[in-house]
Amino acid sequence: MPLRRVIAAATLAFAAALALAGLYVTMRSSRAERAFPPNGDFVTVGGVRIHYVSAGRGAPVVLLHGNPGFVSDFATGLLDSLQLHFRVLAFDRPGHGHSERPRGPSATPVGQARLIHDALSELGVQRPILVGHSWGGALALIYALRYPNEIAGLVLLAPRAFPLEGSDPLYTVLRTPLLGPLIRHTVLPAVGTRTLERGLRAAYAPDGPHPDHFAAARALWLRPSQVAATVWDSRYLNEQLREFSGRYGEIRVPALILVGDADRPEGESGRLARAIPGAYLLVLPSTGHQIPQTRPTAVLEALGRIRDHSAGGAEARH
What is the mean pLDDT of the chain? Predict the structure, then answer.
């Protein structure tokens, strides 16, 4: 067979394989969304449809998840505990879970802070306590700097807070024009499951993953749309932390930082505690990164302290 025909046949076979892989990924994503449908409500702000869960009564608390993530990051025990004492709202950040992803500046941390702020205004929520986990901790910090008079306090769970040197090589590839979308929509969901599982187990360690959370994450986090949100959120956060991380001394609301002793507490969390005036750092023993799932009681206690501190400050001002 002439070489030209061999090349043509190989190209055709490769294109057919990619098409089949793309069809598989589309079907897999549809099955995942049917298996784990939205369990809350939607609010549209700035043309973006945001999924959120709301429960309870009392002082408002807003939960912001990490990267990747979704409202289910807070579902194992924490939401049930908090709604007995607070009005709790947990948001799927734009592009994660069941929330739409905007284009342009609205996808950056500053843009996401604005969308959450506008969503809270639409829902009639005033001066909430922000609870941010990991990437969501950085989002809470940026929110506090952008809207300093519109929050009551911060509870930061193993937060991102400072720019990192370098970039994850896989994330870099997945952001590459043409190649990145091709990988996200074909082979990644099929071959990335083990990588995702290893990452989740590491985040939970020394605890084991919660089965329900583990199953939902495996299903939803590898959808092409959420992978795109994850890899771009990583880049955008690093860029904007170069601007905002030097301003933490401006934060004046009460802040409490929780970090596990297995999660390098002397790193970003310790540095952040020194940067925010009056911030308190609590290191949780035998605890890893996945604090919302593994230590809900500690989060509830931290929120109680911030609520009481904030209420005392408000009484003193009056």
Answer: 91
20: its two tokens: 């089949």
Q: What per-residue string of b and e applies to 280-300 under the rule 16 or more CB within 10 Å gives b?
A: ebeebeebbbbbbbbbbebbb
* 211 pLDDT tier (thresholds 50, 70, 90): very high
| Per-residue DSSP letter, 210 | P
> ∠77-70-261 over CA atoms, to 5°?
60
How confident is the model over 139-158, as pLDDT tens digits?
Answer: 999 999 999 999 999 999 99
pLDDT in tens, 97-110: 999 999 888 999 99
Q: First-to-last CA distance in the chain? A: 89
Q: Where are the alpha helices (DSSP H) in the chain?
A: 3-35, 78-82, 109-122, 135-146, 169-174, 179-184, 188-191, 193-204, 211-220, 224-244, 268-275, 291-294, 296-317
- Give the list of residues 6+ apart from residue 21 with CB closer than 8 angstroms, or none: 186, 187, 190
With the CA atoms of 84, 112, 241 and 286 taken in that order, what torsion angle do they form, in degrees rounded to the nearest 10? 30
Select from 175, 141, 153, 180 the least CA-distant residue to 269. 141
DSSP 8-state assignment for residue 153: E
**The two three-digit tokens of residue 196, written as one number:** 């995702």
Per-residue exposure over 83-94, b if at least 16 CB sit within 10 Å of its own CB, e if not:
bebbbbbbbbbb
pLDDT band at 318 (very low <50, low <70, confident <90, very high): very low
Q: Is the peptide bond before 94 cis (omega within 30 degrees of 0)?
A: no
* pLDDT band with cut points at 50, 70 and 90 for residue 265: confident
Domain 38-162+241-313 classification at class level? alpha beta
Q: Where are the domains of the chain?
A: 38-162+241-313
Residue of 143, 130, 115, 150 whose CA lies nearest to 43: 115
Cα–Cα distance for residue pair 89/77, rounded to 1 Å = 15
